[in-house]
Target: CxC2-like cysteine cluster KDZ transposase-associated domain-containing protein
Amino acid sequence: GTTNAACAWCGQPMQLMTRCRDCFQAPPLWGSCQVTSHVHNPFHWTEVWQGKFYAHQSLHDLGLLICLRHNSTACPASLRPPSTPFVVIHANGIHNILPGFCQCPRGPNHHIQLLCANLFPATFDNPKTAFSFTIMKDFHLHRLCLKKSTYDYYAKLVRQTSNIILASTNDHYGELLRASQI
Model:
């Protein structure tokens, strides 16, 4: 039973049991412990126990804030937490996140912060979408070896995000085309 389960990270009894789909032999964790354990793997997918089944859940939905710069901690110059939605496309799907950009007076532009975090922005002026370097390399290999079209590759990413509710992801196909040309 899962009713008396304890978090493998903090040992506390769990009322919100989660597990990571992408970690190898991941133990069940309390939601906040799942977030803490994934600060450096923010694009993993989690599942939350619903009493009879596990439901697909993102780390963002559990409260993960992806801080750029400052060793993955919030920028000391930031006066309020970020609220602008952002999309990162990674090898395992399309992720909605809240990025914590550095707000220091001499801090680099947002597109530079993304590039330093191994994220390729879809645009350099006020980016709202980025592609992980992992996805850009994978896409390049698919094009070279498998001759897959960009449309087919993007369709695979949508299915990896949610194979049940395909309309739940916004269309970022054009951005993938633009980024791949650059």
The first strand starts at residue 17 and ends at 20. Residues 18-62 form one domain.
